[in-house]
Amino acid sequence: MIDTVRVTRYVTPLREGGSLPGIVEGDDLGTYVCKFRGAGQGVRVLVAEVIVSALATRLGLSTPRLVALDLDPEIARYEADEEVQDLLNASPGLNLGIDFLPGAFGYEGEASTPPDVAARILWLDAFTANVDRTWRNPNLLLWHGDAWVIDHGAALYFHHAWEAGVGDPARFAAQRWDVGEHVFGGYVDRLAATDAMVDLSEDDLAGCVAGVPDAWLEPVPGAETPDALRAAYVSFLSARLATRAWLPGVSAA
Q1: Which of 21, 153, 182, 228 is the most exposed place for a label (fewest CB within 10 A)?
Q2: Which strands sit side by side in the sheet containing 146-149, from one edge to the other?
Q3: Residue 251: is its pLDDT beyond 70?
């Protein structure tokens, strides 16, 4: 599992997006962007963050370190903002911490991204069905001259339908992905070459899923335990990896 860090102080909210993430300090003296389990999107977006971040790392992409932030709602007593208080009180236990990159700034297209990096990001988003890396919201940071991928909560949409049961991985495997509004859509002609270099195995996928804390793996029909849910994620990702129906410009296998 990803490392666990205890939250020692809530610093300030980030007024971006609808989930109101915040900057917090941990007992390891680190500073993190905290995404709260009590936010309206729920814990499954945190699961997607961990899995896709691990996949990004395996593809050689830069992405901030993740930790599980153990939050005591007692911290809410010291916050004047009622909205922040409510969020802290709704998020006891493990939340997601994303290492804060000091001095990083949002990607706006001015800086040059190496074509191979852009193509790998495009491949990752196609594989995980991430629809949230457009020019309106690139979810990229520039830090020390490199592009860092962040905010993967919109990926792996299939798990939001699991309330009725896990379902069939083949549906996700065959689901096409629209490259149209992607920030790196101009690199679609490089996807075939990038795909040929991707070397992911089922063991790699299982390793990515293994990082998810048990506390975020809430039971659903057909997968009532954390291990069963991990196996379900691996099945869906393995099924998608076995075909290329989803990859723009590449023939299905």
Answers
A1: 228
A2: 105-106, 140-143, 146-149
A3: no
pLDDT value at position 132? 95
| Cα torsion 134, 137, 140, 141: sign | positive
pLDDT for 126 beyond 70: yes
Element of type H or E holding 13: strand 4-13
Q: What is the model's pLDDT at position 14?
A: 87
The Cβ of residue 11 has, within 10 Å, a number of other Cβ atoms equal to 13
- Cβ contact 140:150 at 8 Å: yes
DSSP state of 174: H
- Nearest residue to 128 via CA among 237, 244, 204: 237
Residues in the chain: 253
Report pLDDT digits (tens) over 153-171: 999 999 999 999 999 999 9
3-state secondary structure of 5: strand
Mean local confidence (pLDDT), 111-134: 94
> Burial, 24: exposed, middle or buried (Cβ in 10 Å; 0-12, 13-18, 19+)?
buried
Residue/partner pairs of 104-112 with CB below 8 Å, 24 or more apart: 104/141, 104/142, 104/143, 104/148, 105/141, 105/142, 106/138, 106/140, 106/141, 106/142, 107/138, 107/140, 107/141, 107/142, 107/147, 107/183, 108/138, 109/135, 109/183, 111/142, 111/145, 111/147
CA diameter of the chain: 56
Q: What is the pLDDT of residue 78?
A: 85
Whether pLDDT at 17 is above 80: no
d(CA 51, CA 129): 13
φ, ψ dihedrals at 55, nearest 5°: -65, -40
